[in-house]
Design goal:
The chain has about 200 residues and is of the alpha+beta class. The chain folds into two domains: about 130 residues, 3-Layer(aba) Sandwich (Aminopeptidase); about 40 residues. The protein is about 40% helix and about 20% strand. It contains seven helices and six strands, in the order E-H-H-E-E-E-E-H-E-H-H-H-H. Strands 1, 2, 3, 4, 5 and 6 form a six-stranded mixed sheet that branches. Helix 1 packs across helix 2. About 5% of the residues have low confidence. InterPro entries: Bact_Acetyltransf, GNAT_dom. This is GNAT family N-acetyltransferase. GO terms for molecular function: acyltransferase activity, transferring groups other than amino-acyl groups. Keywords: Acyltransferase, Transferase.
Length: about 200
């Protein structure tokens, strides 16, 4: 397998449009030009914010001057009760046409180098559950499964939680009960409207 030379650098504002493409932030939307401009502006602001934070890094991989992938790194405590820190790799992505060219390895080497510079002994990486290749690759590198990360929208999670808030939330306030009752009434109304006549 032929490997191209991969160059790495910290993200710059000029990389914003390419990084929007890397992470697929632009699903099919109406007014695509406006959505692209807005997403690029948001990405440029995020790049500046990350560059100013000594505990974050956004590394871009290029092959022949084309953005091939990127990784977002964060240094944070290993847990709420430990002083040890870890480098969290939550958004490692290689564009499909550049896979199997050493891009992922180069980004993970940059991760390890940064962890060493920050005197951090742990790396925690997340990969999409749907990406068997990424999960196998990380397993081959010695990253064992330590957790399952799940996600939901706030309204979806609220709909599944009990209507009555826990006792600790109810102490001294009536508003918690009122909010719970309003939400329960709205869910009930939505269910009755959704039922076929």
């Amino acid at each position: 397998m032929f490997r191209c030379a991969v160059s790495l650098s910290d993200a710059a504002p000029g990389d914003a449009a390419a990084l929007v493409e890397v992470w697929g932030a632009l699903a099919e939307r109406p007014h695509q030009d406006q959505a692209t401009a807005h997403a690029t502006q948001e990405a440029a602001a995020a790049i500046a914010r990350i560059a100013a934070d000594p505990d974050q890094r956004l590394v871009v991989a290029r092959i022949d001057d084309a953005v091939a992938g990127a990784v977002h790194l964060m240094r944070a405590p290993l847990s709420p009760v430990h002083s040890d820190t870890a480098i969290y790799v939550m958004h490692l992505h290689v564009i499909e046409s550049f896979r199997r060219h050493g891009v992922g390895r180069a980004l993970l080497e940059a991760t390890v180098t940064w962890a060493e510079e920050k005197d951090t002994e742990h790396v925690i990486a997340a990969a999409s559950v749907a990406s068997r290749d990424a999960n196998r690759y990380m397993a081959r590198l010695g990253l064992s499964q330590i957790a399952v990360v799940r996600g939901a929208t706030v309204p979806a999670l609220r709909a599944k939680l009990p209507v009555e808030p826990p006792a600790a939330a109810r102490v001294g306030t009536r508003s918690h009960r009122n909010v719970g009752a309003v939400l329960a009434q709205r869910r009930s109304l939505r269910r009755s409207q959704a039922r076929p006549s």
